[in-house]
Amino acid sequence: MHETDMTKALIMTVRQWWEEQPERPLIETIHLIVGQFTCVEPASLQFAFAAQTQNTWLSGAKLAIRETPLVAYCHPCQQEYTPEMGLRYACPNCQQPMEEIRSGRELKIDRIEYTLATGAEQELVECTGGVC
């Protein structure tokens, strides 16, 4: 289950950001973008996150996962198509093997929702390259 290792890396990345903040915010939700072609099972990722954050500084934090579909591009047909995961990756029109993936390999932190000790809600809108 590589979701366990991915969750550990996610927690380390968020902790690094958290420790750099002048005030330690209470993290409410971590929003992830996960592509279908990463072979990450969202339910397993949720389970690993819940298990690894129990009784820690992230207790009570939620993991919100938005999946992106696998989208490929066929150069001979000059069109995008959606391959059938695990079944058929070739172009449905000309049967050419999948050459270019345009979407579906993403695995990154989209944003983190948190509350400061003052009670004012804040939101980190974007983390560049998965590092906050």
Write the layout of secondary structure elements.
Blueprint: H1 2-20, E1 26-35, H2 42-53, E2 62-68, E3 71-74, E4 79-81, E5 100-103, E6 107-115, E7 121-124
Describe the 3D structure.
With 132 residues, the protein is of the alpha+beta class. The chain has 2 helices and 7 strands. It has helices at residues 2-20, 42-53, and strands at 26-35, 62-68, 71-74, 79-81, 100-103, 107-115, 121-124. The strands form 2 sheets. The chain has a 4-stranded mixed sheet with strand order 2-1-6-7, covered by helices on one side. 18% of the residues are buried.
Please provide a brief summary of the model.
The protein has helices at about 1-20, 40-55, and strands at about 25-35, 60-70, 70-75, 80, 100-105, 105-115, 120-125. It is of the alpha+beta class.
For the structure shown, list the relevant keywords.
132 residues, alpha+beta, four-stranded mixed β-sheet, 2 domains, 7 strands, hypothetical protein PF0899 fold, three-stranded antiparallel β-sheet
How many E-type strands? Answer: 7
Instruction: Give the termini separation.
Output: 25 Å
The string of secondary-structure elements, in order, is HEHEEEEEE
What Rg is obtained from the alpha carbons, in whole angstroms?
18 Å
Top-tier CATH class of the largest domain: Alpha Beta
Percentage of residues assigned to helices: 10-25%
Mean pLDDT: 86
Number of domains: 2
Give the helix/strand class: alpha+beta
CATH topology of the largest domain: hypothetical protein PF0899 fold
- Unreliable segments (pLDDT under 50, ≥5 consecutive)? 123-132
